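Feature request, filed as a ticket because there's no other form

It would be nice if the structure record came with a short human-readable summary line next to the C-alpha cells. Right now we just get the raw output. Example of a typical job, pasted below so the devs can see what we mean:
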Amino acid sequence: MRHNFFILVFILLYNGNGYTQVKTPAVHFNQVGFYPAVPKIAVVTGMPEKAPFYVLEAGTGDTVYRGQLSDTMQSAYSSAFTRLADFSPVKKHGRYALFVPGVGQSYAFRIAPGVHHQTGIDALKMFYYMRVSMALEAKYAGKWARPAGHPDTAVLIHPSAATPQRPAGTVVASPGGWYDAGDYNKYIVNSGITMGTLLSAYEDFAAYYDKLRIGIPESEDRLPDLLNEILVNLRWMLTMQDPHDGGVYHKCTNADFDGMVMPGVTTLPRYMVQKSTPAALDFAAVMAQAGRVFRQFEKQLPGLADSCIHAAIAAWQWAQKNPATPYNQNAINQQFEPKITTGAYGDWTFTDEWFWAASELTATTGADQYVDTIVSRWQDRIGVPTWNSVHLMGYYTLLRHQSALQKKSRIDFAAVRTRLLQFADGLIANGGDRAYATIMGQSRNDFVWGSSSVAMNQSIVLINAWLLTRQPKYAYAALSNLDYVLGRNATGYSFITGVGSKTPMHPHHRPSVADGIPEPVPGMLVGGPNPGQQDRCEGYPSRMPAESFLDHDCSYASNEIAINWNAPLVYVVNALEAILGNE
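Raw output as currently delivered:
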C-alpha cells in the first residue's frame, strides 16, 4: 500500500546519495542495518502511545510491514520510557526506515547479507591510523594522511627502570606500534588485552580473516591484513623487553601528555619506565599466543614465532623472580625525576595475568611447567575482560585448544567449559537493559570509563559460548550489543566514528582535533556513557548512567578512543559477519 504523507517523510529523510542527518531522533536502533534472518528491534522513546509503526521502503514510501509497539518500559539506567518496535519478519533485502505516527521517522537503514562488512573493515583499519613511527599515505589514509609521528629511535631509560646494564639515561630504540588512545604514548599492559583480543579473532575466525583486505600498505602481501596490523604492534612490544634479564618496561612515554597537536610535532623526551609484573605477564601471554599464530607463517616470517616464544618464556621467568612488582606511579614520582604523569595502567592484583600467561604458554609450548598455575587459579573470580582483568582470556584459549591439550589431564576442561557457559547464560538471563533490549546494562556498573568496550567484551563472551555450542541464542545476544554501540542506546548515538547517521564528531583524539578536518578519523569506538564524568567537562546532558555522554573533545571520560576498546569491536563485528553475514 502507498501513503502520500509517507512519501513526504522520505523526501525529508532520504536522498540518492545516502543518509541525511536528523537532529533529534526518537527512534533508536542500529543505524547501519540488519541481516535478513536475525531479530530486528528499534526503540521508540518520548512516551509514545501504544500504536502501530510502519516499515517503509526507501525511495518509494511503500509500506512493507505494519507492526504494533510493545507496552511501555522504563529504563533502569536512563530517564527514558520506551516501547519496542519488532520488525523481525522483514527479510527482503533493501533500504528502509521506520515511521511511528505522532513520533516521527527514523534514519534510513539496510537489510542485507554482509550488512556490517564495511563496519568490520573500518574498525580494523582504525589501527592503521594509530601507527606511530610511519607516515600515513593518502593512498591508504585518504584525507587523514599525515607525516610520521614519534620516531622513538632514541628513547631514554628512566631512573625507575635503571639497571647496571642499562643505567638511567641509556638510549634505546623502541619505534613503531600504535598510539594507545587519544594520547601519544605506548603502554604494554593495555597492548596486552588489545593484542590478545586481535590474535584471538584470528584464531577463532581464520578463514574469514584470510580473505579480508582493508586497504593498508601491506594488503598485497601474503599475510592476512589482520596479522599485518598485529605485526606493527608486536614488533614494538619486542623492543620493550630488556634483553639482559627478560623484564618488560611498563610503558614508552613522554613525562607528560602532549598537547592537542599532530603526532611528532612535539620533541619532548621519551622514556622507558619501570618494569612491572603485570607488564611481564601480559607480554608473556601475547608473545606465546603470537608465536602459536605466526608459526603458520614461518615461510613468510622466518624465525618470528621462535623469537616470540623465547621472549614469552624469558618474561615469565622474570615474573617468577619478581612476582610482586606493581606499577605504582605515585611512588615512582616520589623517588625519581622527571615525574611521569601519563596513563598509569596500575594493577594491584596479578592472579588473572598469571592464569592468562600460563594458559597461553601451555597452549603454545605444551610444557607441563605452567599447568600448576592453571590448576590453582582456574576457579578464581571471572568477569568481562578489561585491561586489568584478563582471567577469561585464559578460558578462551584453553577451550579453543582443548583437543590438543587433553593429555594435560590435570586441567578440568569440562568444568572450565561449564563455567564459561554459565557466565554467558547469566548475561542472557539477567537480560541487560530490557528497555533497549540489549545485553549491555547488566547493572549500573556496566556504565564505566570505556562502557562501549564493556558491551563488546560481553559479546565476545557470548560468541565464545556460540563457538562451543553453535546455539543461535548466543549469537543473537551478542548482536544486541552491536546494535547498542550502533545506536540502540539511550543517547541515540552510534559510538563508532563515521559509521551510522548520528556519530561522534569531536572525539578526544589528538589527530582528529589537530588535523583541521571536520570529520574525525573513522572507525574509532568512543568510550560511551560514563556517569563518573572524571573530565569535569561542562555540557553533559545527564548523570544518568546510560545518558552520561558528551560529544566534545574535552570529554576524555566518555568520548576518548583507545586500542583496547577497538579490539573487541573488531572481534565482534567480524565474528558476527562470519557467523550471521549470510543469513
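Something like this underneath would help us a lot:
The first strand starts at residue 14 and ends at 15.
The two ends are 27 Å apart (CA to CA).
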